[in-house]
Amino acid sequence: MKIKALLTILETMAPLAYAEDFDNVGLLTGNSNTEVSGVMVCHDALEGVINEAVANKCNVVVCFHPILFSGLKKITGKNYVERAIIKAIKNDVAIYAVHTALDNHKQGVNKIFCNALGLSNTKVLVPKQKFIRKLVTYTTPENATRLRNALFDAGAGNIGNYENCSFNSQGLGTYQGTQDSNPVVGAAGDFMEENEIKIEVTFERYLEGKILKALFNNHIYEEVAYEIYSLENQHQNIGLGMLGELETPMDETAFLQFVKEKMQAEGIRHSAFTGKVVKKAAVLGGSGSSAIKNAIAAGADAYLTADLKYHNFYEAEGKILLADIGHFESERYTTDYIAEYLKNNTENITIRVTTVNTNPVNYL
Questions:
Q1: 245 lies in which domain range?
Q2: 176 has which bridge partners?
Q3: The whole model's pTM is what?
Q4: According to the lineage, what is the superkingdom (predicted)?
């Protein structure tokens, strides 16, 4: 298997289009035409991980956090990022990062977090916005079924748990071709009135090129009339964080102890107790202070995340229990998920999880 084939598998697991705009995901180093000798999965692609990959004949490192996040003007080995990059390039090790592409996936980081806590009835906490577009086009009744099915095959028409969704209406279309036209119905220069079908379908914005290709390849008109709109609708199956319900409600002390055990947290910083029983919990792996208001609005009794600052705890306002369980801890099981996914979707490729502890935070 070449690296480019592995990239297809990784992008199926976590589509790069799902990543936040600020992020740096995908192939960071390496040549996609190189044969894969083995894969090392890690949280952070530090120099020690690269050394372990080389020692185990793994020429691909799949990491959660991108080791290259901002631009480098010099690579001299003066810090941990540059040393890791130099080590990878010297040893022909490709580095691939998933980060928020997996954060935003409905089966990704936050679903893994929920599963570790046994949360059920889960749904996305902060649905992704400005990600849905609508295509409107017009064709003859005879062409409508073929065209509609082609758009569905290209990925259009998916709404939540439903597929092949469209709206179709009949109307009267008019046109008059110039002397250079070659209309399918009528002749150049003739004013035509024809019964047409208006087809409307929604799609995820990253599919636009594929959708338009399907439109042009399956439409019978010489000139295809179509419109694309950006919608304000939220995408309910893509986004940051997740909300779920505990099987058995707990008081706040028992809940935090439960979380500490399940997530193997060394310690948990939390806001003042509200006195409420915890039934509904919101989670967001990694830095999640931006979603405190979302957790409160969603009616969560507790919100588990990381990297909360002093003043963030005031935002609880007695309405919710805020808990900072640690950045690494909140994403703890992500590497196992990636490794398992790769094992289930590749053949004759060694998949390893690093033994290097890349958590930079230590506790006394």
A1: 109-127+239-325
A2: 191
A3: 0.89
A4: Bacteria
